């Protein structure tokens, strides 16, 4: 069997709420242009295999405000296991860099805590870091994030539904524009129509609500970078800075390297080449 040389580094991408591996494709193409290998993870409850509310794709979307989420039972453990599985598959590379976006910071952090030998660096892209506070909701609901937009996008009773539910396929142009302005404000409306069609409606509640404990001998020993999104309206720069500061206070022997990207919460859509270059750097 012929052995082909491998690039020395592989980047493993973990998406955020309602997203999937598919949204990383433009960034992965940009990385390939730079000669870098990458793979993207689908967390349980996301991606093209995720189960949808029964009326989501039907005319009028019956039951969307009340139906129990078919992914309500997804756990943080299952999400972390999905990341660890991919990390084990790529450990043959010399260097493995784990890149997490937004709510994906929780599963990625827990995976790194459980298997630090599989990760050489963690990159947080405007992502949850559970080093100072254990749950994403603890930062999402902090005073530093009070000016964030998007809370009006959630549908129904989240506890009864078992998920944070949005409606990416809403026929209401005001609602759709609210989603774009919160998460994709640098992406033109006509392009956002295509991006939103690939989103899932449900984020399992375990992802923002499950507490995660990190330790110095495991997660704390891994070099880490935080890529701030400078005009983020979903997770404000102030909230990002709070997570960085509290992580560095909790783990002072291994502080974050911090860089700032211009623009919105979703640079994988608005500036994938710039994002790829920042990740490689």
TrEMBL record:
Q: Which GO terms describe its molecular function?
A: hydrolase activity
Superkingdom of origin: Bacteria
Keyword tags: Hydrolase
* AB hydrolase-1 domain boundaries: 12-278
Does Hydrolase show up as a keyword for this record? yes
Pfam families noted in UniProt? Abhydrolase_6
InterPro entries documented for this protein: AB_hydrolase_1 (IPR000073), AB_hydrolase_fold (IPR029058), Sec-Metab_Biosynth_Hydrolase (IPR052897)
User: What is this protein's name?
Assistant: Alpha/beta hydrolase
């Amino acid at each position: 069997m012929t052995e082909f040389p491998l690039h020395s580094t592989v980047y493993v991408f973990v998406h955020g709420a309602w997203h999937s591996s598919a949204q990383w494709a433009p960034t992965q193409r940009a990385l390939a242009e730079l000669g870098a290998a990458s793979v993207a993870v689908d967390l349980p409850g996301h991606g093209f295999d995720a189960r949808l509310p029964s009326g989501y794709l039907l005319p009028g979307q019956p039951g969307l405000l009340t139906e129990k989420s078919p992914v309500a039972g997804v756990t943080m453990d299952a999400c972390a296991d999905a990341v660890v599985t991919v990390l084990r598959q790529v450990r043959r590379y010399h260097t493995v860099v784990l890149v997490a976006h937004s709510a994906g910071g929780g599963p990625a952090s827990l995976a790194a805590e459980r298997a630090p030998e599989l990760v050489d660096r963690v990159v947080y892209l405007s992502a949850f870091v559970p080093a100072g506070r254990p749950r994403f909701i603890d930062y999402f609901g902090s005073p530093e994030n009070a000016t964030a937009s998007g809370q009006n996008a959630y549908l129904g009773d989240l506890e009864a539904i078992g998920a944070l539910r949005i409606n990416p396929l809403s026929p209401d142009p005001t609602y759709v524009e609210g989603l774009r302005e919160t998460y994709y404000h640098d992406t033109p409306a006509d392009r956002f129509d295509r991006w939103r069609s690939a989103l899932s409606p449900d984020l399992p509640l375990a992802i923002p609500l499950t507490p995660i404990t990190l330790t110095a001998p495991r997660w704390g020993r891994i070099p880490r970078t935080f890529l701030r999104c400078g005009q983020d309206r979903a997770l404000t720069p102030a909230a990002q800075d709070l997570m960085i500061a509290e992580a560095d206070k909790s783990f002072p022997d291994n502080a974050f390297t911090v860089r700032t990207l211009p623009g919105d919460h979703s640079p994988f859509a608005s500036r994938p080449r710039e994002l790829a270059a920042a990740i490689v750097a």
